[in-house]
């Protein structure tokens, strides 16, 4: 007979919620990391246990410079934050000026399905927040859209890239379009524009550029609705309202552009580009046959940078060398020129 001795430890009774500090999860766009940190400090000093975002992927970093790696990190952080929401007793949304983006909107919905109370902290940046009613002047607004429109994607697996992305960051407005192999972005200084983002379909872009053509001016005034839920575009006497709805998370284009701009021109071999993709950079209202394109890169396996001036930057992906004509074959075809360089009439 075998006798087993076990030490029995009495179960510890669950600690009542009233006997522990309340757990608060902060939600909000990472562009408001300073405001989130301030709210974290306020709640911590008030005796709460605070769970908050701690990684800002909008800031370039070698940790997520690779797009595939960045996508994996983003997915992991989203799952982690949902776990924080599930652990919390309540949710506080940090949304200066009333703005919160698509990811935060999903988090709010998830919290409410769990029965968590949700409150909003709208303090901070109210002077330039999207709740302001005064329209903001944007020079060459429809020209921005036309410049990037040729780069809109058509891949059915990436429907969000089928249009133009607008991103406002307080004092700048970006227009971005990207397919699988090219990307283009333009920027304008727009003090007071607020902080918001908006997806424009091809049809909306076409309508806005048509209105601008009818008035003879590419300029516009943008009026952002409460909580960034919509944007009214004033073009001359015309007024066009764009409702904001969740269309998915747009790819994070900033690390790609930052890496390409930081790279010095150091290619030591030939590169192969598709003519149609390169031609996209020659379209747009401000482009003429004499508009120079500046192209550079460091690694033929990485996208090359293409600029048409300080406010327009693009990326183009090189294709595999074997898809291009072999240099030896080209030299053989033109051997007569290499061996006889005399001018013949």
What does this molecule look like?
It contains nine helices and 13 strands. The protein has about 350 residues and is an alpha+beta fold. A five-stranded antiparallel sheet has the order 6-7-13-12-11, sandwiched between helices. The radius of gyration is 26 Å and the shape is globular. Strand 1 (about 25), helix 1 and strand 2 (about 50) form a beta-alpha-beta unit. The model is unreliable at about 1-10 and about 125-135 (pLDDT under 50). About 25% of the residues lie in helices and about 25% in strands. About 30% of the residues are buried. It has three domains: about 15-125, Rossmann fold; about 135-245, DNA Polymerase III, subunit A, domain 2 (DNA Polymerase III, Chain A, domain 2, Roll), CATH 3.10.150; about 255-325, no CATH class.
Topology:
Elements: E1 23-27, H1 33-45, E2 49-51, H2 67-87, E3 90-94, H3 102-113, E4 118-121, E5 136-138, H4 141-148, E6 164-178, E7 182-200, H5 202-215, E8 220-224, E9 230-235, E10 238-243, H6 254-262, H7 275-279, E11 294-296, E12 304-307, E13 312-316, H8 327-333, H9 335-339
Parallel strand pairs: 1-2, 1-3, 3-4
Antiparallel strand pairs: 5-8, 6-7, 7-13, 8-9, 9-10, 11-12, 12-13
Give the amount of beta strand, in percent: 15-25%
CATH class of the largest domain: Alpha Beta
Calculate Rg over CA atoms.
26 Å
Strand order of the largest sheet: 6-7-13-12-11
Low-pLDDT stretches: 1-11, 125-133
What is the name of the CATH topology of the largest domain?
Answer: Rossmann fold
Second CATH tier, the architecture of the largest domain? 3-Layer(aba) Sandwich
Average residue pLDDT: 79
Rough outline: globular
The count of domains is 3
- Determine the number of helices (DSSP H or I, runs of at least 4 residues): 9
Distance between the termini: 113 Å
Percent helix, as a range, is 25-40%
SSE run: EHEHEHEEHEEHEEEHHEEEHH
Largest sheet: 5 strands, antiparallel
How many strands? 13
Structural class: alpha+beta
């Amino acid at each position: 007979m075998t006798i087993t001795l076990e030490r029995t430890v009495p179960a510890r009774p669950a600690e009542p919620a009233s006997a522990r500090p309340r757990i608060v999860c902060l939600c909000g766009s990472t562009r408001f990391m300073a405001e989130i940190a301030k709210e974290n400090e306020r709640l911590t000093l008030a005796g709460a246990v605070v769970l908050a975002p701690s990684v800002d992927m909008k800031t370039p970093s070698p940790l997520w410079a690779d797009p595939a790696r960045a996508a994996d990190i983003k997915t992991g952080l989203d799952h982690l934050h949902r776990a924080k929401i599930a652990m919390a007793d309540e949710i506080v949304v940090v949304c200066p000026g009333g703005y919160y983006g698509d990811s935060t909107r999903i988090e709010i919905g998830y919290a409410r399905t769990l029965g968590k109370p949700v409150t909003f902290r709208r303090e901070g940046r109210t002077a330039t927040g999207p709740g302001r009613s005064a329209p903001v002047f944007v020079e060459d607004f429809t020209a921005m859209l036309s410049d990037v429109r040729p780069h809109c994607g058509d891949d059915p697996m990436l429907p969000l890239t089928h249009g133009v992305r607008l991103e406002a960051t307080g004092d700048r407005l970006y227009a971005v379009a990207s397919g699988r192999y090219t990307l283009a972005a333009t920027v304008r200084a727009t003090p007071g524009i607020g902080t918001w983002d908006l997806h424009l379909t091809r049809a909306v872009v076409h309508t806005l550029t048509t209105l601008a053509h009818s008035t003879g001016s590419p300029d516009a005034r943008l009026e952002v609705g409460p909580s960034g839920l919509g944007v009214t575009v004033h073009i001359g006497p015309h007024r066009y309202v764009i409702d904001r709805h969740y269309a998915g998370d747009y790819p994070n284009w900033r690390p790609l552009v930052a890496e390409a701009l930081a790279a010095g021109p150091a290619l030591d071999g030939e590169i192969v580009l598709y003519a149609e993709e390169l031609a996209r950079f020659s379209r747009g209202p401000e482009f003429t046959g004499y508009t120079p394109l500046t192209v550079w890169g460091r690694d033929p396996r990485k996208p090359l940078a293409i600029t048409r001036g300080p406010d327009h930057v693009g990326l183009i992906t090189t294709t595999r060398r074997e898809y291009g004509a072999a240099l030896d074959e080209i030299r053989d075809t033109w051997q007569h020129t290499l061996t006889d360089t005399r001018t013949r009439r």
